[in-house]
């Protein structure tokens, strides 16, 4: 798929990669969920009242766009009928024709859901044109006759609970086979790198990075000299913490690889067989 076509179909898929994507805890995106469902309910009510004459309103900047949220509509044959976002260029065209082969079947399955009056939801990974990266996206949609009305939001930040779970997973692998685990981290193996979550590992004795799931240039460098984006000596603080405890956490500012912005990062650390293993989550304060 060309880059242009990738941009064109932003936000289209109703593809549920629920098994691959780790859902956020119930309150992590609660405000976004409420906004999305409110916008969807508004659009559904408008469509029920006006029928297809509402489609033009959905494609305009106005009542059916709320910040980064917008309504888009496809029919059950897979043709885009309306969009208040980047996919407006696909109105009148079959969506399936611009999807990768492995998404087509799942898309068809999603749009074939019955008209049961129920709001369905799905999660998948898709290109975010604002950040220029693939991010998790959660979509809510409802079918009315042969129309599927949808709205979704991106989920660029994983939760602290997800960071802790990944830390425990990687720490266990380091304990059983450190050499193989470090190789996997440095290869950005998908099982050890999840959305904005990644691990870094430091040799406690040499105080140097031996693995990093996002910035390989740090491998072999002096961990003690590491500073946050606002100058906090985080390397020294983590070493001091790990000299006294087997586990701990620290908060500092760092660049979120998903958003490209400096954000507050809460990093959890653990000593494992002479290594310091760390995974952190991002938040905006």
TrEMBL record:
Double Cache domain boundaries: 57-282
Listed Gene3D superfamilies: PAS domain (3.30.450.20)
Organism, scientific name: Pseudomonas fluorescens
UniProt keyword terms in alphabetical order: Signal
Signal sequence annotation: 1-21
InterPro entries registered for this protein in UniProt: Double_Cache_2
Pfam families noted in UniProt: dCache_2 (PF08269)
UniProt protein name: Double Cache domain-containing protein
